[in-house]
């Protein structure tokens, strides 16, 4: 009469929420780091080197915070993961080609791969 989930299903749900929560916390924190405007702040200097303008730093921060929040909402997980993955792909390209530091582009690429693997694992499950 009543269906009960198996213990593996409940573990998958717990794991899913745990991973989504970790992604959300990480990207909300990454995004919030971009808002302080102190001239000696790392992000201010980096976005100055990019040369598009400081509005792009704010835009990136908003996208990261919004993406982190979207990952927490069950109906918008895919949209959140996609926006964060695009942000990380853009970050990797900008760091490698605009800033000329291809070695530093490894970190956003690792986030891109991790987000993609998580998205694929959710599609199969």
Give the tags.
76% helix, 5 helices, 0% strand, mainly alpha, 125 residues
* Outline: globular
Strand % is: under 5%
Order of helices and strands: HHHHH
Low-confidence stretches: 1-6
Query: If you average the pLDDT, what whole number results?
Result: 92
How many extended strands?
0
Assign a percent range to the helix content: over 70%
Largest sheet: none
What's the alpha carbon Rg, rounded to whole Å? 17 Å
How far apart lie the N and C ends? 25 Å
**Count of individual helical segments:** 5
What structural category arises from helix and sheet content? Answer: mainly alpha
Provide the number of structural domains: 1
In short:
With 125 residues, the protein is mostly helical. It contains five helices and no strands.
Notes on the structure:
It contains 5 helices and no strands. It has helices spanning 7-33, 42-50, 55-72, 77-98, 106-124. It has one domain. By secondary structure, it is mostly helical. α3 packs antiparallel against α4 (77-98) and α4 packs antiparallel against α5.
Secondary structure: elements and pairs:
Blueprint: H1 7-33, H2 42-50, H3 55-72, H4 77-98, H5 106-124
Helix pairs in contact: 1-3, 3-4, 4-5
């Amino acid at each position: 009469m009543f269906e009960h989930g198996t213990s593996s299903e409940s573990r998958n749900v717990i794991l899913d929420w745990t991973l989504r929560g970790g992604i959300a916390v990480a990207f909300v924190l990454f995004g919030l780091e971009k808002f302080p405007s102190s001239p000696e702040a790392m992000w201010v200097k980096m976005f100055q080197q990019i040369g598009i303008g400081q509005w792009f730093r704010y835009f990136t921060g908003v996208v990261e915070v919004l993406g982190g929040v979207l990952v927490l909402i069950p109906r918008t997980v895919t949209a959140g993961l996609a926006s964060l993955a695009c942000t990380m792909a853009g970050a990797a390209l900008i760091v490698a080609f605009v800033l000329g530091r291809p070695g530093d582009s490894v970190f956003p690429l690792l986030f891109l791969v991790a987000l993609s693997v998580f998205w694929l694992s959710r599609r199969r499950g």
